[in-house]
Write a structure and sequence with these properties.
The structure is a homodimer of 177-residue chains. With 177 residues, the first copy, chain A, is mainly alpha-helical. Chain A has six helices and two strands, in the order H-H-E-E-H-H-H-H. Chain A has a two-stranded antiparallel sheet. The relative contact order of chain A is 0.17. The interface between A and B is large, with 48 and 48 residues. Chains A, B: One of its GO terms (cellular component) is plasma membrane.
Chain lengths: 177, 177
């Protein structure tokens, strides 16, 4: 097998369906971190409610936060699934489904990137308005946006972790092209 | 070299520093599309100005659009650079710097994903307000957000193209792990 490949001018590369133990362990640790960050971000944003003159301001009232929460929920579910698979892989010493890791990590990291962008976009511009206007000191709307800001920051960290995971899963990808 | 690797229990895979002609051509076409989409998106957002009662509303007044424009500018510059390198690679039949492609495409696609998220986040929620309020029929602010929406849609398409490029460059990545 190896000899025939070495003889061919442009041989299809052998597909090494394995990754080293260290990369599996690194993946496991990063997946734990991503899951924890996403879970806290989910709780902070999901419980973000504020009363203004008998009516409530909730994160659902702003479409950007709805989208942000959707990405967090999908990210958390995916992290939990991958965490279970990672633990199994580290214990058994086997590789998981490398193609699932590659496309899963890529898709989820893009989702989290867009969710982070959406979260910060709506928060930063609205905070500028509410922080500048003294009216909002009384009705305490600032706390609502501070919490959203905290949630977006956690989501940003979770995105960075998932982007690192995506780099690792790209390196362990069996070659096709 | 090939024999010693075949004998080892967990050998480092050989690094095939090449990609097929078809993948190079596909990359070139995708890079042309990405560049055109980003350029139109840049023009649409960059020229988005509106007069309201002697004062001007420009995209710079909204931080989310500033961020969005930054990602578009960086994306356009990167696309142009990669386009030049791609043409050179197709003509010479050689591969470019695969590691630059991999990390470049990854970084730029994340940037465009967050820019798309930011653009849509601020546009969708503001459009809901301005479309519902009859006051804005007179001062024509809706056109401003319609243009921003168009720019964000083009950016979304450009992001999709860059994400595809990132998948291709992951497959042509020399393995390390």
């Amino acid at each position: 097998m190896a000899e025939t490949e070495a003889a061919a001018p442009l041989p299809p590369p052998p597909s090494p369906f394995y990754s080293s133990v260290s990369s599996r362990l690194a993946s496991l640790i990063l997946r734990i971190i991503a899951f924890i960050l996403l879970l806290i971000s989910l709780i902070v944003l999901g419980t973000n409610t504020m009363e203004i003159n008998q009516s409530k301001l909730r994160f659902q009232d702003i479409y950007a936060y709805r989208y942000m929460l959707s990405t967090i929920v999908i990210g958390t579910a995916y992290s939990l699934l991958q965490l279970a698979l990672s633990i199994q892989n580290v214990v058994s010493g086997q590789d998981g489904i490398l193609l699932l890791n590659f496309f899963g990590d890529k898709l989820i990291s893009y989702l989290l990137a867009s969710g982070t962008g959406a979260g910060f976009a709506i928060t930063v511009d609205t905070k500028r308005l509410t922080d500048a206007d003294p009216v909002f000191e009384l009705i305490d709307i600032r706390e609502f946006y501070d919490k959203a800001y905290a949630s977006a920051s956690l989501l940003l960290l979770a995105f960075c972790t998932t982007a690192m995971l995506s780099i690792i899963s790209s390196y362990t990808l069996p070659k096709r092209v």
